[in-house]
Amino acid sequence: MGMRFEGKVAVVTGAGSGIGAATALGFAAEGAAVAVNDIDSDTADKTVAEILAAGGKAMSIACDISNTAEVEAAAAEVVSKFGQIDILVNNAGMPSAAPAEEYTQFERVMAVNLGGAFHWAKAAAVQSMIGNRSGSIINISSLAGLAAIASDVGYTSTKHGLIGLTKALALDWAPYGIRVNCVAPGLTNSLMVAEAIEQFPEFMKTRIGRIPIGRVAEPLDQAKAIMFLASDDAAYITGVTIPVDGGQMAMNSGYSPTR
Ligand SMILES: NC(=O)c1ccc[n+]([C@@H]2O[C@H](COP(=O)([O-])OP(=O)(O)OC[C@H]3O[C@@H](n4cnc5c(N)ncnc54)[C@H](O)[C@@H]3O)[C@@H](O)[C@H]2O)c1
């Protein structure tokens, strides 16, 4: 694959674990200097240490992405230490769970999943990308951005919102050479999914049985799609959402994947 991101600077939010960590490591392995954000500074530091140990370049910018002032300060720190921001991956996100009539987390989930992505995009654009007439932003939605997940009105609404945010930013910033795209992961092997498989083996077996490709995604499957969108190979792609879901959205018909 070569070193597609030599000389580039990438910010990855929620990069202390899962998809974000795999993405941060992937960008670093292909030459980018990576700014690692997470609300948990210990896990952010761990990802930074892994990148440094592999001979890469990284810094920690741990903060809560729902705090706009902290996001602006973190972006400034990246520009001051690494010189610019070429790539932003808005990956941090939180699930929640309650039927709509009992749901109390709406404001918090909006502020993190959707607000955090917008404020990071604006900070990266204003502080670096617009002036440089260049940039690539990738928002991480979910299949919950394309269809609903029961008992999670906040997650479903914000993940749909991220697809709209992607289109709106793509229009506003195309004149500045900034591309904005979105990845919608299907079930991906994170800590949470591993725990669910252990706790509810039968339920999860049925759930995984509905994935045409027949397995959950690995974080690296998502990272590879994210890196493609960030790379020059995607130079003419902006405003789109790519499901990386093993074929799930292709069979949203109520039927099982096999006869
Ligand atoms: N794993 C899946 O099956 C799956 C499927 C679809 C979409 N996604 C999305 O992919 C993204 C990454 O999820 P993951 O599966 O790797 O989960 P994860 O829990 O391993 O990673 C999410 C990271 O975001 C961080 N985070 C949470 N709130 C934050 C905040 N306010 N500020 C900064 N960081 C914060 C967490 O500390 C965590 O390290 C999320 O947006 C999630 O909604 C995941």
From TrEMBL:
One Pfam family of this chain? adh_short_C2
Give GO terms for biological process. Answer: monocarboxylic acid metabolic process
**What molecular function terms (GO) are annotated for this protein?**
3-oxoacyl-[acyl-carrier-protein] reductase (NADPH) activity
- What InterPro entries does its record include? NAD(P)-bd_dom_sf (IPR036291), Sc_DH/Rdtase_CS (IPR020904), SDR (IPR050259), SDR_fam (IPR002347)
Where is this chain's protein located in or outside the cell? Secreted, Cell wall
This protein's major location comes to secreted
Q: Please tell me whether the keyword Hydrolase is annotated for this protein.
A: no
Q: Which family does it belong to?
A: Belongs to the short-chain dehydrogenases/reductases (SDR) family.
Descriptive protein name: 3-oxoacyl-[acyl-carrier-protein] reductase MabA
Organism expressing this protein natively: Mycolicibacterium hodleri
